[in-house]
Fold this protein.
Amino acid sequence: MSAIVEAAATAAFELYPAIDVRDGRVVRLRQGDYAQETRYPESPLDLARRYAQAGARWLHLVDLDAARAGGYTLAPLLRAIRAETGLQVQTGGGVRGEDDVAAILGAGAARVVVGSLAVRAPERVLAWLDRFGAERLTVALDARQDAEGAWRLPTAGWTEDSGVRLHPLVQDYVRGGLRHLLCTDIARDGMLGGPNLGLYRELHALAPRLAIQASGGVRNVADVRAARKAGCAGAVLGKGLLDGRFALGDALREAAPC
């Protein structure tokens, strides 16, 4: 293990239990496919309360309806989560303009997650970093590896090739002051096959000071440990946590500073 990665493995590491909301329900999609939806019985607010009671500090909240149609709809839920749990929330879905960012922050978000627009219009997102500050935005890049081994960034529900490659875009954002990057290997999303540690090692080597959040495939506490050792600063916990494959408290203990 390199000295840089070893140092990262002993630093603070944040866990982000994820709540994806569609039609007011907690759901998970398989590889982002709205036709492959699993529903969960708890309400989003009840689930957030349970995660807070287990010791979580952060929550990753996604508006799946807005991700399709635009227009963030979860402001009332966001306010309730902040008021009742004290969780720090990073949240997004349907962010199209600067006013959306301001409104979501105004509703209580600690960070706004920007996805598709970060690929299609990076100059706009770089301007938001300048206006709102690097601690208020998380850029989310969903990547798919092509036959030649290059990491590409599809858009439109992962159906269209944007023509943009992951590594050069990350370098552009780092030069523009980005601090928080959430990166998902599309092939791992919702598949419980483990996170793509090789991808995260590449990104950490490319930008050692970037706080990278592993997303997609975390299935147990060992995967949390592995993501930390790969140089990530945090991990998003989705289907594995919702399906009860591991306890949040155990994962949080693994993520505690060494």
Q: What stands out?
A: Residues 3-255 form a domain with the TIM Barrel fold (CATH 3.20.20.70). The longest helix spans residues 75-85. The CA atoms of residues 56 and 252 lie 7 Å apart. The chain has twelve helices and twelve strands.
